[in-house]
């Protein structure tokens, strides 16, 4: 009897505006399977999902768009103003997200797979990983990039940063820190080196 395939899981994270998405895209170019927490979070509340049914039972069909999909803006309003509802939602979604990520990891066929999670450290998902990579840049740069990209207010970005792990907490959790304070090509070069290290580690 063969034992199930246990992929080598590399957790990838970084604060808002750090360049985690760019790093994830480069790993994908190298042929590495990506399990993206943001995509998984969308999947578990997609049309016809168990997650969406539970949310509708809780909040009624005013939480849905006309086409039956989740009205994210309406849900956000309900949970951000009420800590009990926020806790209920987290208790529903976090186990569903974790299960789905584990399933996708088990299906990975590349030498290692990337688990790309904005809140890897905060949600203690490092325990699902064999290795942790943090994309890092100074906080002033995070703010600047996020403002440029998201069109959000400075206050919103600062609130998001405050709700995430501190830069030091992320760095302490890392096996490797990728410095993304200069150019995308400098980041790519670091990832290319790291890729070779990870290929060696995952083949042991």
From TrEMBL:
Q: Which GO terms describe its molecular function?
A: kinase activity
- Chief location: cytoplasm
EC category name: transferase
What keywords were assigned to this record? ATP-binding, Coenzyme A biosynthesis, Cytoplasm, Kinase, Nucleotide-binding, Transferase
Pathway the protein takes part in: Cofactor biosynthesis; coenzyme A biosynthesis; CoA from (R)-pantothenate: step 5/5
Alphabetized InterPro entries for the sequence: Depp_CoAkinase, P-loop_NTPase
| Entry EC number(s) | 2.7.1.24
Question: Where found?
Answer: Cytoplasm
Q: Which reaction does it catalyse?
A: 3'-dephospho-CoA + ATP = ADP + CoA + H(+)
Binding annotation for ATP: 17-22
Q: Which PANTHER family match?
A: BIFUNCTIONAL COENZYME A SYNTHASE-RELATED, DEPHOSPHO-COA KINASE-RELATED
Q: Which family does it belong to?
A: Belongs to the CoaE family.
Q: What does this protein do?
A: Catalyzes the phosphorylation of the 3'-hydroxyl group of dephosphocoenzyme A to form coenzyme A.
Q: Which HAMAP family match?
A: Dephospho_CoA_kinase
- Protein name (database record): Dephospho-CoA kinase
């Amino acid at each position: 009897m063969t034992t199930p395939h246990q992929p080598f899981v590399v957790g990838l994270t970084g604060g808002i505006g750090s360049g985690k998405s760019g790093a994830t895209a480069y790993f994908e170019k190298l042929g590495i399977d990506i399990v993206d927490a943001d995509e998984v979070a969308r999947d578990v509340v997609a049309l016809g999902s168990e997650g969406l049914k539970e949310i509708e039972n809780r909040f009624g069909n005013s939480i849905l768009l006309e086409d039956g999909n989740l009205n994210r803006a309406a849900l956000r309003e309900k949970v951000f103003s009420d800590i009990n509802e926020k806790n209920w939602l987290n208790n529903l979604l976090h186990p569903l997200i974790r299960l789905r990520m584990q399933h996708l990891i088990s299906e990975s066929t590349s030498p290692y797979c990337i688990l790309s999670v904005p809140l890897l450290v905060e949600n203690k998902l490092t325990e699902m990983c064999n290795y942790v990579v943090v994309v890092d840049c100074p906080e002033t740069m995070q703010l600047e990039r996020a403002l440029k990209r998201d069109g959000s207010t400075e206050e919103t970005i600062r609130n998001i940063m405050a709700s995430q792990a501190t830069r030091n907490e992320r760095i302490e959790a890392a096996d490797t820190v990728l410095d993304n304070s200069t150019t995308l090509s400098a980041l790519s070069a670091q990832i290319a080196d790291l890729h070779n290290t990870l290929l060696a580690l995952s083949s042991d």
